[in-house]
Amino acid sequence: MFVLIVGAGRVGAAVAQSMLAQGHDVSVLDEDPLSHERLDAGLASSWEEAGGRFTVGQGIELEALREAGIEDADVFIASTSGDNTNIVIAQVAQRKFQVRTVIARVMDPARATWFAEQGVRTICPTLEAIGMFESAIGEVA
Q1: Positive or negative CA dihedral for 128, 133, 136, 141?
Q2: Boundaries of each RCK N-terminal domain copy (predicted)?
């Protein structure tokens, strides 16, 4: 399976390394060339030697997405630090490039809920934290 991840921060890099270790073809797109270091961290060889791909560019730019391989992607993960960016590029992946599985990290619970209703899988750490806190409070009460 070919996975394209936009955003090579801690989350994107960890997911990319996990997917590569599971035997998937993985391409990462990030605007910061130095974010490549996160992909190399902990590997016995470089990210590319391990079979990964890295492209420097803006996830919001169609040409950068194409260069990173979006036209071949089975899974697209938007994991930049910006909700708006993640929402827009997830919609582009879903609607323009017809990527089968699109996942977006969205920090704002209201946006995450709405976006999930539009058919994009969302991961919202804020909602997960709220759920954990409510569960813990319920156990104490």
Answers
A1: negative
A2: 1-127
Supply the CATH number for residue 86's domain: 3.40.50.720
| Angle ∠(37,121,88) on CA atoms, nearest 5 | 70
pLDDT tens per residue, range 93-124: 999 999 999 999 999 988 888 888 878 899 98
CA distance 115 to 47: 32
pLDDT band of 133, cuts 50, 70, 90: confident
| Domain that residue 96 falls in | 2-140
pLDDT of residue 134 exceeding 90, the answer is no
**Rg of the chain over CA atoms, in angstroms?**
16
Stated pTM of the model: 0.91
Contact 66, 89 (CB under 8 A): no
DSSP annotation string for 66-83? HHHTGGG-SEEEE-SS-H
- Specify the number of domains making up the chain: 1
Residues composing the chain: 141
